[in-house]
Amino acid sequence: MASNIVMNIGEALAGEGNEIAHIDLLIGDKTGPVGVAFANALANQSRGHSNLLAVLTPNLIAKPATVLITKVTIQGATQAVQMFGPAQYAVAKAVADCVAEGTIPASQADDLVIVCGVFIHWEAKDNAKILEYNYQATKLAIQRAMKNQPTPSEITAQKDTVKHPFAG
Hints:
CATH topology: Ribosomal Protein S5, domain 2
Structural class: alpha+beta
Strand order of the largest sheet: 1-2-7-6-3
Helix content: 25-40%
Shape: globular
């Protein structure tokens, strides 16, 4: 059974310091454009950009199936282990919790896929914070995507008053 979600987009920032999490994600039907992006992410790997499935533990994939894509070049074993450990688990747990809570309908979990961009700062040290912040950001990004938030009216109402934390 196909999903009625062609492509929803979510974004969220959580945490602080070098462990800050910034998530960009797409969620949509596996037979549509998000499914194509999902397959391409898994099939097209490159040095420093190892895309991986979100798993709660080996042999227990999150559903909807989710691929983590690196938003920065992974530079060394520490950063790779952070991506393949706390970040991977955090994203998988957020997806599973969103299904359990009904944010993502369980009846559509086999029909949808998620492409999730994950940022791991090259100087991040605290794996517990990486896990916590990526969990928070992923869950919020999914919630926003499933509600198509923010709305255009929310964006236009705030566009002249908000400050980007990294814009200077």
